[in-house]
Design goal:
Four copies of one chain form a homotetramer.
Chain A: E1 2-5, H1 11-23, E2 27-32, E3 37-42, H2 50-54, E4 59-63, E5 83-85, E6 88-90, E7 96-100, H3 107-119, E8 124-126, H4 144-157, E9 161-165, E10 179-182, H5 190-197, E11 203-206, H6 213-225, E12 231-235, H7 253-260, E13 265-267, H8 269-273, H9 276-288, E14 293-297, H10 315-333
Parallel strand pairs in A: 7-8, 7-14, 8-9, 9-10, 10-11, 11-12, 12-13
Antiparallel strand pairs in A: 1-3, 1-4, 2-3, 5-6
Helix pairs in contact in A: 3-4, 5-6, 9-10
Chain lengths: ~325, ~325, ~325, ~325
Amino acid sequence: MITVLKPGTSQAQRDQLIVWLREQGLDVHVSEGSDYTVLGLIGDTSHVDMDLIGSLDIVESVKRVTEPYKQCSRKFHPEDTVVDVGGVKIGGGNFAVIAGPCSVESEEQIIAVAKAVKASGATLLRGGAFKPRTSPYDFQGLKADGIELLLEAKKETGLPIVTEIMNANHLPLFEDVDLIQVGARNMQNFELLKELGKTDRPILLKRGLANTLKELLMSAEYIMAGGNDKIILCERGIRTFETYTRNTLDISAVPMLHELTHLPVIVDPSHATGLNRLVEPMAMAAAACGADGIMIEVHNDPPHALCDGAQSLTPEQFDRVAGKIAGIREIFQK
Amino acid sequence: MITVLKPGTSQAQRDQLIVWLREQGLDVHVSEGSDYTVLGLIGDTSHVDMDLIGSLDIVESVKRVTEPYKQCSRKFHPEDTVVDVGGVKIGGGNFAVIAGPCSVESEEQIIAVAKAVKASGATLLRGGAFKPRTSPYDFQGLKADGIELLLEAKKETGLPIVTEIMNANHLPLFEDVDLIQVGARNMQNFELLKELGKTDRPILLKRGLANTLKELLMSAEYIMAGGNDKIILCERGIRTFETYTRNTLDISAVPMLHELTHLPVIVDPSHATGLNRLVEPMAMAAAACGADGIMIEVHNDPPHALCDGAQSLTPEQFDRVAGKIAGIREIFQK
Amino acid sequence: MITVLKPGTSQAQRDQLIVWLREQGLDVHVSEGSDYTVLGLIGDTSHVDMDLIGSLDIVESVKRVTEPYKQCSRKFHPEDTVVDVGGVKIGGGNFAVIAGPCSVESEEQIIAVAKAVKASGATLLRGGAFKPRTSPYDFQGLKADGIELLLEAKKETGLPIVTEIMNANHLPLFEDVDLIQVGARNMQNFELLKELGKTDRPILLKRGLANTLKELLMSAEYIMAGGNDKIILCERGIRTFETYTRNTLDISAVPMLHELTHLPVIVDPSHATGLNRLVEPMAMAAAACGADGIMIEVHNDPPHALCDGAQSLTPEQFDRVAGKIAGIREIFQK
Amino acid sequence: MITVLKPGTSQAQRDQLIVWLREQGLDVHVSEGSDYTVLGLIGDTSHVDMDLIGSLDIVESVKRVTEPYKQCSRKFHPEDTVVDVGGVKIGGGNFAVIAGPCSVESEEQIIAVAKAVKASGATLLRGGAFKPRTSPYDFQGLKADGIELLLEAKKETGLPIVTEIMNANHLPLFEDVDLIQVGARNMQNFELLKELGKTDRPILLKRGLANTLKELLMSAEYIMAGGNDKIILCERGIRTFETYTRNTLDISAVPMLHELTHLPVIVDPSHATGLNRLVEPMAMAAAACGADGIMIEVHNDPPHALCDGAQSLTPEQFDRVAGKIAGIREIFQK
């Protein structure tokens, strides 16, 4: 950590700060310029409150040299992490194709979709049982019954299942869920992250709508700090000023995260754009820039055939996308 | 809700959509233009999935005419709500001055700050016991012990206390807390909101870092839908591209929320700017535009007297701000 | 245009508004609901001030049904526009590979880079002569001399050239420039756009840092309204909260713009990320989602071989990227 | 400027960088930590390309210690600048009340508004002659005729006039304009800024919709670098995700700019919110936090009396706001 002192800082103020920093277990290396003095803080600075130092009257600025995350950093773990999700490997060259409906609605629906997406090459089945909704009046999901139906579909197809958790108290219901999703709005629900860190279950951690990659990695760090390193990160679009798309897919998050962390990174083009006709090009872009997987909404029974334009693909549309993705993937495997 | 159909929509498609909308309990009023057809959907549209309709192939656009929140809307409750917090009224002309340290550190500290801020005119004491931190390695607060110390300070000074909850399972610890704060990162932790809705405790709901006012009101609606209408909203700065300040205080949120909702609205200039030297002008601005209160960080013992520049004010600085605020408030009471 | 009147609007107010709207040449179609009244405004609404109507006391909301842009809209021109740039076609399946240095520095430099990128498959040469810089103290480019050097490189290699204009008064200097670039900061310099609209020169219009796609299209419309339809749009990254990358590449802008407009759309991964190691994956993503070209910074002489990490690629790095892009393009040509 | 080298940088690479930095006229002070090496760059770093250094392979990060702006910095000019605009002083305790219509429409209109706002205490008259519009089909202002009408109103009332310039070629038309406005979309039109820097005319520089305060100050620096120091800065709202207001007034820009620069800072609540009913509370907030003035849209003839809800105030509404502002100002003058 580098701390720059303002011009005009007295010797006494400087010494007082240095004493206080040393009390926090840091070595302090002083470097004097003509106008300013630079303090290099050496030691474990992950516990140091950078904001507090930065706010001191005599401090011009403060800057971390090392990232505040460690266990998820590639610096300390150069090889790709491969997460085993119910027998399906994700990361390190293993590409996941996760597909399924936004919400689990009925046994018939989920089993039909599961069979269809499996036939097209999906390797995991997704489906919402507990649904975070902006409005208390919107459908909140089938909850425990939804998980039961997902398990039925798993029994039928053999596809491992992914579904979202919203409350650590629900963990017992998720005992047979293969991959537990933390949604964008809960990315900084630190209490939930801590509880998931105590388990040994694979976690799919979605980036928050206005969160930086550093914040995403700090949330992964929460889970890893508890002892659970089975984490898959998911870019699912961020909030920008653009209104034609629901969110904006930050595609550069894929290679950037691959540089920063050893954890697998997948992309959700359905939520990122909110428009089913953009799912194919965005899934292609994700595969072309090295994502470890994609997660796509597929629905078998659009209401009265009117829903073709929705965020969800039909099984036929998904089949086409899955085929194209396989084409892009071949270039990588050469 | 207004739905505009694309040019070229066939009669059959249109009829199919109208039948489906009527099945959802809506009246549909058709208005034909030369190029497009407009459907006016009449009835209780708060249950209707606007995104689904908007994503239909034949739909050009869809727009809500009525807001999706009801119980917190001023349309349905024109008079200001006044929330009684341990005997202190907030809202409807009653201005709250909430002050105290970011974190409760010790009995000595919290009692000294409580006495100081009370002497300067504070009407409530704030202090963090459970602290949401971006890093798992940062200080997470004194937790239950912190609440105990706040209760000690309340006993000494008579000031009602405000502190943040992060987990509904902790509610039993908050039995004697006068005002329960939901932090910015938990604004859309719907599971927590639902649990708070089942209580009859006053709630201080902070706006999320990148959330709109509509989303803030929908979160308030979650609490009210459960039966608890003792809610105070708090503007605490939003994320923008500006870097000189930690966040950007959205001061227009105050009059805008007053127009939209009957709930009281307070401002937290400390978190909004992250700079103690901006707390005074921002508190002045908040008072001048009609806020129902301010919440200011005050710390009695900046580390080794170095902390004057921090986000927190010293008791002396707070005394000056409180005096100036009183001056502004007089203009309103004339 | 749809205008929704507030509940409680009197008949007199409504009639007054309708008279005023008709005076502006619009037909008004009234549709009454139980709570609100909807006015459908029919006719050429592109001249109507939507903000003014929206701000009327009696108006709940107003919404355009048709987009405010016309000449650049795909609705009125379904086929892809193909722009001929000095004999090189761009758009409609013709993929452009534009490469060259950020700034033209010397004859030796620009000719060396031009030869190298041509050998790797570039179809146009880019190079900055007039440089928009945030600081008045930064290098502002070689200006007219820079254009001369680009023309030398064109003579040597046959590559058409692209360079940025900042001032319509400089147009005479751009007489032999094949593609005139409007930079992100000038996207809404309407005076410049109007002057370019009066010429018949191909224009490369870059999206502003915080502008929406609609605003980009409105700026294209400024040029087209003057009579010049030789426009290529460029997505070059938008401002978001992410700090690891300089900007955030909005990759979904490519298919979204293809849906909205007939104009070609290219991607600049160098400016979008600011990191040369992200240029390859982002160029791959752009090609995979259907962009009509890419524009990449290539520099032949990184200062003292230290510059490998810069935004620019070396000719060797560019050669590798160009080869990979060709691989992706093959999938499209199948 | 502080440059942190990555762990593992070789002595040879380090020396090569240092030699290159010294060639650029900088002293380099080396400070070695256990993991990283810090280079302090001393001398005039305003010419140094920070992005280039930051992109070097061996560089972990680079950080400016001194701001890149100088002439507008308060560090080098501690006293408030007072700008004389046609005899009216702005800044240094002199509060400006600027009022007038968005667009000049007719002699009758502008003279009536000018007389009304003068009677209510306005000290300058604003009115748009050249109007930047997002759409080429929208009204672009009366142009030269609009300036003539403003000069008529000035003759009648004695109020100095403010109007926007969009093209440096129009400068001859602005000879008698007292304060030349640079609009938000032209804040980084560097060619225009340079031309204005060559004049000795007072400039009102508006902050761009998504620009930081540093960028605003760099644009002021462009004008000052040319020799013109008569600059007034204007906060007029920034783009955020909030949709109830057109933009978001960044009220903390006022005290923050006062800390960073000696130039006067005024606030435009009309454009910041887009809603006339928010103009009063936002003008109050601006005055309460120390702004040097406000700029408010006032229109005398809302179309058929329907326009009460528009962004513009009526003269009666303005009179009320001006009176309230005077009340707030009294607190400051005590």
